[in-house]
Amino acid sequence: MGFKKPIVAEIAFHTFAINEFGMAACFLLWGTERGILIDTGCGMYNIREIADELCPVPYDVILTHSHGDHVAGIDHWDQVYIHPADMEALSPERFEQNAKMLGRYPEMMAAFGSFDAYEITPEQIHYPERVPELLPLYDGQIIELGNRPVTVVHMPGHTPGEIALIDPFSRIAFTGDACNVNLGLRACTIKEALEGMERLESHRHEFDRNYNGHIGYGSDNVNRSMPESCLDDCLHILRGILDGTADVQHGPSPFRGGDPVDYVKEGAVLITFDPKKIR
Predict the structure, then answer these.
(1) Which residue from 253, 242, 244, 220 is spatially nearest to 113, judged by alpha carbons?
(2) If 31 and its partner were Cys, which of 95, 146, 195, 250 is the partner (CB 3.0–4.6 Å)?
(3) What is the CATH number of the domain that holds 202?
């Protein structure tokens, strides 16, 4: 028998990770006045039930980016925050396209063991039936939770409006899909992606750990942060692509196979990118 509910782990004081069956991860944190829920999951479970039970103060919902495996639960709230560059992807006109993409997600995750480790079925997944009010987030914005300021960092690349959130209170960077060991950067140029990565680097003195949006991936139920070298490896690869020194390979992604892509693997990080989008 596998788990029927997401695995919830307390990763710091007043800070919880919600592992949604190895398919996506959400994070809940709060201060003395307010809280924030980071991402709403891939639609395999109603994350609001967990957030409402855990959080003792009113909280806001913040999306790191617009991909279906991070936003499928948005219709359980009336308002969500997202960077303006990703708002169009959540428009009603894009719903059908996004729903099809989300529908293929369980098939992909089955290869990583999610359906072996958890008692779930592909039929459970759902895409939001409505779009709540979308409120903007901007680079450098400070979200004050009450003795706990959280900073927004714009990190385009995976999507145009991808963001990370820096929480000096827990010394954690919550990076969505912006700085991880398997990083797809096809939504903007490598130059823009590097600028976003360097913005994250400028906050390095405020965090020790980097939690991305897919902890406990597949059948791995250990809710660990990214390797310590992750940010440095990302920076080195991006700078190498720009100056022509990176060892660029072309072929099926070492991470998930499929059609040939351009990629660089170095240290703990694999980055795939569009060779037509460099500068």
Answers:
(1) 220
(2) 146
(3) 3.60.15.10
d(CA 127, CA 165): 25
- Name, in order, each residue with C-beta under 8 angstroms of 157's C-beta and a sequence gap of 6 or more: 178, 183, 185, 187, 188, 192, 193, 196, 197
Within 13 Å of residue 148, how many CA atoms lie on the same side as its CB? 19
Q: What is the pLDDT of residue 127?
A: 83
Range of the domain at 142: 7-273
Range 227-253 average pLDDT? 96
CA–CA dist 91, 82 (Å, integer): 13
- pLDDT of 48 reads 98
Q: Is residue 234 situated within a structural domain?
A: yes
pLDDT digits (tens, 9 = 90+) for 165-194: 999 999 999 999 999 999 999 999 999 999
The whole-angstrom separation of Cα 83 and Cα 30 is: 21
pLDDT tens-digit map of 215-239: 988 888 788 999 999 999 999 999 9
Element (H, E) at 93: none
Number of domains present in the structure of the chain: 1
What is the DSSP track for 134-196? EEE--TT-EEE-SS-EEEEEE-TTSSTT-EEEEETTTTEEEEETSSSSEEEE-SS-HHHHHHH
Q: Is residue 2 part of a domain?
A: no
Q: Among residues 53, 52, 74, 75, which one has the least CA distance to residue 62?
A: 74
The counts of H helices and E strands in the chain are 7, 16
- pTM value surpassing 0.85: yes
Note whether residue 44 is domain-resident: yes
Residue 279 included in any domain: no
Average pLDDT over residues 154-172: 98
Q: Give the whole-angstrom CA distance, residue 225 versus residue 181.
A: 11
69 token code pair: 């495996």
